[in-house]
Amino acid sequence: MRSPQKTASRWDENKSYILRSITFSCGEGSTSNNVCLFAGGLCHKHALLKSKYKRFERGATALWCVRNKAGNGSQTLMGIGSPVLPSVAGSVPGVDDAPPPPVRGEGRRHGKIICYSRNRSALCGAPIVRPMDQFAKETLPVSLEEEMRSSYLAYAMSVIVGRALPDVRDGLKPVHRRVLYAMHELNNDWNRPYKKSARIVGDVIGKYHPHGDSAVYDTIVRMAQDFSLRYMLVDGQGNFGSVDGDNAAAMRYTEIRLSKIAHELLADIDKETVDFEPNYDGSETEPSILPARIPNLLINGSSGIAVGMATNIPPHNLREVVDGCLHLLRNPEVTVDELIELIPAPDFPTAGIIYGISGVREGYRTGRGRVVMRAKTHFEDIDRGQRQAIIVDELPYQVNKRTLLERIAELVTEKRVEGISDIRDESDKSGMRVVIELKRGEVPEVVLNNLYKNTQLQDTFGMNMVALVDGQPRLLNLRQMLECFLLHRREVVTRRTVFDLRKARERGHILEGLAVALANIDEFIAIIKAAPTPPIAKQELMGRSWDSGLVRDMLSRAESDTVGGRTAYRPEGLLPVFGMQGDGLYKLSDTQAQEILQMRLQRLTGLEQDKIVQEYREVMAQIADLLDILARPERITAIIVEELTLIRSEFGDERRSQIEHNATELDTEDLITPQDLVVTLSHSGYMKSQPISEYRAQKRGGRGKQAAATKEDDWIDTLFVANTHDYILCFSNRGRLYWLKVWEVPQGSRNSRGRPIVNMFPLSPGEKINVILPVKQFDELHFVFMATSKGTVKKTALTEFSNPRKAGIIAVDLDEGDFLIGADITDGQHDVMLFSDAGKAVRFDENDVRPMGRQARGVRGMNLEEGQQVIAMLVAPAETAGEGEQAVAGSVLTATENGYGKRTPISEYTRHGRGTKGMIAIQTSERNGKVVAAALVAPEDEIMLITTGGVLIRTRVDEIREMGRATQGVTLIAVGEGNKLSGLQRVVESDAEGEDAADGATESDGEAPSADTTET
User: Fold this and answer.
1) pLDDT at residue number 988
2) Ranges of Acidic residues compositional bias (predicted)?
3) Alpha carbon distance 396, 404 (integer Å)
4) Which H/E stretch holds residue 458?
5) Are residues 467 and 169 in contact, defined by beta-carbon separation less than 8 angstroms?
């Protein structure tokens, strides 16, 4: 074998050096790949790793230690993270005094280096060292790609395995496991006094978790919060935070101890049930896993973000999870769907409502799913029943109450959620209570549904059930999680049984020795008295063979009762020379002799002999039972079932989270009860609705009930009865259409004015709503007929307006300076009448206008002179074929700007083709001025006239004479100098009465307008 040519020069043991290089040569049976050069390692006299020979392949990464022994001290030279290279031939600069060749097959010291041999191949190393002041004076070329790949992969695996993901067996991350174990080691049990949190934190970071104290304390705080963990693992005393996001008190103030259920995670940990591993500095050992009698991963859940993956497991009810475990133990072929019957959904510590389980089932089947959570609420009447309030009793899991209230207030300020007048947090020690007061007339179901959509009153928990299985991250379904836990329990019970068996055998062995001593007590005492020292006495006792009939009887009974015969009760590793021999004599072992020497004199009484025999019988019975457990897997299953049943009875509780199995994603409308409402719109633009039940039946001539409170300069312009689920089409003067559901119209009392309609839509400056039309359904048999001020008309199928949009749509495309003056719903059997400010009118069949698309501009309906415009569009019943008379009697009231007007029978207006200049409707002489209004009226109607000076007059239609078309009319109102008549409006009676309450609000003749009729 070749030895290195030179050895290392001497160095000061009190200094640190850089291990420059160590050249290893291999002897017999070696290959070139075993010849290595290690460089760049740190050399220091304090050894962290034990010296051990390892075989490295060429190109691998080296971790090498060579132990140096000199005098009474020791040093370790380490080459860490260096690439394995071929040996360097020839001399090495700076090295002298070559050592002699090592002897094959043994380690031998050459100067300051020990050479190790393995498999008949001797290794010898010679270091070159340099002081620390010369460190890092040279650089080595390294591939950035390779360095990033290896380093980042190592970092990622460290985070995944050692920090962010829980183990499927005990459901804990390393920091949680270390905290619980440290508290266990300090005897910080549930039935002992509390200890300061700072003391626990110091123990954890000092012994097991070399990280920041805040990280450890935050872990403790979360395990002590009843709103974070379904079953708290730490019993805290002090301020540990709240659902408002308040921080816990500092660790020097709070006190903690293990909760009672946490002991189930640590049960039997002292019986070698789990593996222990060195801590970060090798000074302590810590468990790699906890025995965990409870399925902690499911009952408390877990969440964490690793590198490239994350986990989010919801908490569950312990009673349900244990039932699932027991069912799986008894029926190993059970399916996930069958387990879902026992574990239907998560059970959150903050309770709340689980809204639908389709996403939960998906999560249980695949490991990924979606849990929709809702706050639990109820309604209360306030202000003597005139208003209502939404009371929030329970929040979804992990929702910050303070942040939630701030979000609601923000939405109210931004008017994204309307109808809320006040928000108060009345929560106290007795429970949660958040009060959301509503404005008068608001529907609480509607407001609550809007809050569900826009706030965390409805939240989602994304299930991503990733956990470590055998040290590898895996996505698990419900069955797999239970299987992994039960497999862990089988291993723990088996290892516990093996431990108990070993201890029982050792105890039985000691009892045999005590029985031998009692049977030969005089000789034992004589030997002990004669021995000069205890070791000599022990040797004397072990050197003889002893006769004991008591032991023979004990052993014979044990052999007959124990599975496996004589060998079953002997401790493992006990040499055959000890114990009962073939000649019937007994040889004491070292353990027995030591126990005899330590025996107290009171054990020499006859009663003690009986106790030894009785205890020996019990130990032998225990050994037989333990052997039977190990021999029969069904016994282990029975033990697991028994333990789980006890845990369920002691810690099981009722489900907190309510499950709504058949929940669907409801629109706000789904929460509205269908009912008929009376909808009113005043001339000033105030809109409201009232239940039709507010209008009781009266006899004809009754006084009726006032439908709305109006000012002297305002009146009800439009009134109709519609169902809460009907639409209201609202047309603006800019030709845009906005939608409104009847239930969206604010309900008000008879004395309220309602809400301004301009506040219900995103109107642009100068835009106003001038036509509203109720629609029950969008069918193909009806049309929307529109007219503009420049004489353009357009007919569009009603179905074109069946897709509501919040921002509205263009109903008719208008030219600059044009505006919409009228719109109505037709069925193809009506005539359309257009009136211009020049006193002309045209009447034509609506079928003269073909249906057009929504984007079309329309066609000419009336031919206007320069400066003229259309001021009114009326939809009248079609003429009866062959008669020239109108099927329904009625008249047209026209009014001019100087206060003159007249009433003309509708039959006087004959049909002409569309697009003509029309016929004379009223003379527009200098006396009359321009026409400002036209309306279909009946004799019993009333009209309101208003001037530009704000003067109002209300008069009955039957007081206005019927006159021919070509007349100038009569005085309707004295406008006064400088004023003009600005408008005329048919008044819908505000004192509505009806023949029957079911008919709703009616006009003065007792007939209610239909839901499809618009009075304009």
Assistant:
1) 63
2) 990-1006
3) 11
4) strand 458-464
5) no
Helix (H) or strand (E) holding 376: strand 376-382
- CA dist 464 to 123, 164, 298, 337, 458, Å? 52, 14, 12, 18, 19
Same fold, 172-291 and 376-456: no
Q: Angle at CA 863, nearest 5°, toward 859 and 867?
A: 115
Buried b (16+ CB within 10 A) or exposed e, 511-535: bbbbbbbbbbeeebeebbeebeeee
What whole-number distance in Å separates Cα of residue 524 and Cα of residue 509?
18
Q: Give the residue from 419, 428, 412, 413 showing the smallest Cα distance to 390.
A: 419
The tokens 């816990």 sit on which residue?
248
DSSP letter for 160, please: I
DSSP state of 162: I
Please give the Cα distance from 53 to 30 (Å, whole number).
Answer: 14
**What letter represents residue 754's amino acid?**
G
Specify the DSSP element, H or E, that contains 552.
helix 549-561
Fold exhibited by the domain 672-999? Neuraminidase (2.120.10)
Q: Measured between alpha carbons, how far is 829 from 847 in angstroms, rounded to an integer?
A: 8
Cα distances (angstroms) measured from residue 40 to each of 63, 124, 138, 780 = 11, 19, 11, 87
CA dist 868 → 785, 900, 921, 966 (Å): 21, 19, 15, 19
As a CATH number, domain 172-291 is: 3.90.199.10
Q: Look at the block and give the residue holding tokens 């009892």.
A: 511
β-pair type (121-122, 127-131)? unpaired
- Distance in angstroms (rounded) separating the CA atoms of residues 728 and 743: 10
Q: Which residue has the tokens 């400066």?
A: 867
Q: Which of 275, 16, 258 is nearest to 129 (CA)?
A: 16
Query: ∠ CA 975-942-965 to the nearest 5 degrees?
Result: 70
The CA-based diameter of the chain, rounded to the nearest angstrom, is 154
Question: What is the residue type of 868?
Answer: Q
Residues of the chain with pLDDT under 70: 1-138, 555-567, 606-607, 663-671, 693-715, 750, 879-889, 988-1016
Tokens in use for 432?
Answer: 């949660």
- In whole angstroms, give the CA distance from residue 715 to residue 681: 9
The per-residue b/e assignment along 192-204, b for 16 or more CB within 10 angstroms, e otherwise, is eeebebbbbbebb
* Crossing angle between the packed helical segments 401-413 and 444-454, to the nearest 10 degrees: 110
Measured CA to CA, the distance from residue 791 to residue 589 in angstroms comes to 122
Q: Cα(253)–Cα(269) distance, rounded to whole angstroms?
A: 30
- What is d(CA 603, CA 597) in angstroms, rounded to the nearest whole number? 12
Q: For residues 541 and 588, is the Cβ–Cβ distance under 8 A?
A: yes
Q: Has this prediction a pTM greater than 0.70?
A: no
- Other beta carbons within 10 angstroms of residue 126's beta carbon come to 26
CA distance 400 to 130: 60
User: CA–CA separation, 32 vs 55, rounded Å?
Assistant: 12
The residue ranges of every structural domain in the chain are: 17-140, 172-291, 376-456, 497-631, 672-999
Asked about 452 being catalytic, the answer comes back as: no
**Choice among 152, 155, 253, 280 that is catalytic:** 253
Which H or E run includes 151?
Answer: helix 144-159
CATH dotted code for 376-456: 3.30.1360.40
Query: How many whole angstroms separate alpha carbon 212 and alpha carbon 387?
Result: 53
pLDDT value, residue 666: 62
Three-state DSSP class for residue 556: helix
Distance CA 852, CA 850 (A): 6
Tokens read off for 273: 């049930």
* Antiparallel, parallel or unpaired: β 736-741 and 727-732: antiparallel
b/e map 824-838, b = 16+ CB within 10 Å: bbbeeebbbbbbbbb
Q: What phi, psi does 137 have (nearest 5°)?
A: -95, 5
Q: Which residues contact 67 (CB under 8 A, 6 or more apart)?
A: 47, 50, 51, 74, 75, 76, 114
